[in-house]
Specification:
With 334 residues, this protein is an alpha/beta fold. It has helices spanning 49-52, 130-140, 159-170, 182-190, 205-212, 226-233, 263-268, 285-297, 314-322, and strands at residues 3-9, 22-28, 36-45, 67-74, 84-87, 94-98, 111-112, 150-154, 174-179, 196-199, 217-222, 236-244, 272-275, 305-309, 329-333. Bound molecules: NADP nicotinamide-adenine-dinucleotide phosphate (NAP).
Length: 334
């Protein structure tokens, strides 16, 4: 009998999740049926949406999440032994998963990892996976940035934001990032080529934009929501476009927070604001990953990962990510 470990919710989160809110359990896995694989996790992803999906937080439930895993047994022809696969199976080190064409799934169907060549496997959870697709299509399809425009990104030093800013730069925009520490700001400016970056904890966002974008902002990629986003939206210029990707500033709150209204700017500056889910572009996954991989190989896009060691430390990585400890993508090496 194959054994698996899974991390379950021991206590429903109150505000910021804490280590005591999780516990590890062991279970026996069933024998494979047709259309199933047995996969061993190599990297587990920790992502903000795991905090936002509050209806999935039940005591005893396996914590939701994705992982990249090695197929060690297979009764599914399209998923051969030895290949790597990304699946949304939660925080588990071994999984028996249905991967047939009609298999039910959470977030996204199981996907084989394409040949990454010399690039690390963990990137299939980051720039060459869901966050990369989010950045690529969420910026290019929703905001349609043009050469010479001013693009602002919040959560700029994270998995999605760090890629958004670099794509905007490649498209000829002046790029301004907001992130939560001086070290992150330094990285954005010195390594990633952001034209301006500010620590939102020690700078007034409106004043920073007056200085860095005196004529206003054309494109805003919003990862955080709340008051910072109101300040940025109220600093936009005519026909500005806003891509609403995330609202992490409110994920730990039980009641939706209030922020300065944005309707005046929306009306008088004739702004366009659109929310999206990355899965909208599932059919164009290969196109997005192919372009990102090419930019990485050409040295046009850089990535960083904050890697935590050990399956048992997944809650620690998650709690730390929500508190801003990660630079780039936060992953756990199992
Ligand atoms: N719509 C979609 O399909 C989609 C897909 C993927 C991700 N998302 C969203 O995109 C956003 C970024 O995700 P990610 O995976 O790239 O995460 P990430 O940026 O790598 O990590 C989260 C970061 O959020 C920042 N943060 C935490 N609390 C904050 C607060 N109160 N105000 C401002 N920033 C705060 C922290 O950085 P600082 O040090 O800068 O505070 C932290 O490092 C999230 O909101 C996520 O839900 C949406």
């Amino acid at each position: 009998m194959v054994k698996a470990r899974r991390i379950v919710i021991a206590r429903v989160f109150q505000g910021e999740p804490r280590l005591e809110d999780f516990r590890i359990e062991e279970e026996d896995l069933p024998a494979l049926r047709d259309g199933q694989i047995l996969a061993e996790a190599v990297y587990i992803s920790v992502d903000p949406y795991q905090r936002a999906y509050k209806n999935m937080h039940q005591v005893g439930a396996t914590m939701i999440g994705s992982q990249v895993a090695r197929i060690v047994e297979s009764r599914a022809a399209d998923f051969p032994v030895g290949r790597y696969v990304v699946g949304y199976w939660g925080w588990r080190d071994r999984t028996v998963a249905d991967v047939g064409p009609d298999a039910p799934y959470f977030m996204s169907p199981a996907m084989l990892v394409p040949d990454l060549g010399e690039l690390p496997l963990s990137l299939s959870l980051g720039v060459l996976g869901m966050p990369g697709i989010t950045a690529y299509f969420g910026l290019l399809e929703v905001c349609k940035p043009k050469k010479g425009e001013v693009a602002v990104v919040s959560g700029a030093a994270g998995a999605v934001g760090s890629i958004v800013g670099q794509i905007a730069r490649l498209k000829g925009c002046k790029v301004i990032g907001f992130a939560g520490s001086d070290a992150k700001v330094k990285w954005l400016k010195e390594e990633l080529g952001f034209h301006h970056a500010f620590n939102y904890k020690t700078n007034d966002v409106t004043e920073a934009l007056k200085q860095a974008a005196p004529d206003g902002v054309d494109v805003y990629f919003d990862n955080v929501g709340g008051e910072m986003s109101s300040a940025i939206i109220n600093s936009m210029r005519e026909y500005g476009r806003i891509s609403v990707c995330g609202a992490i500033s409110g994920y730990n709150e039980s009641n939706l927070p209030k922020a300065t209204i944005i309707q005046h700017a929306a009306i008088f500056k004739q702004l366009r604001m659109e929310g999206f889910m990355y899965i909208r572009w599932h059919d164009r996954w290969g196109e997005g990953i192919g372009q990102l991989m090419q930019w990485i190989r050409e040295g046009k896009i850089k990535y960083h990962e904050t890697v935590t060691d050990g399956f048992q430390n997944t809650p620690k990585a998650f709690v730390g990510m929500l508190q801003g400890e990660n630079l780039g993508k936060a992953v756990v090496k199992v």
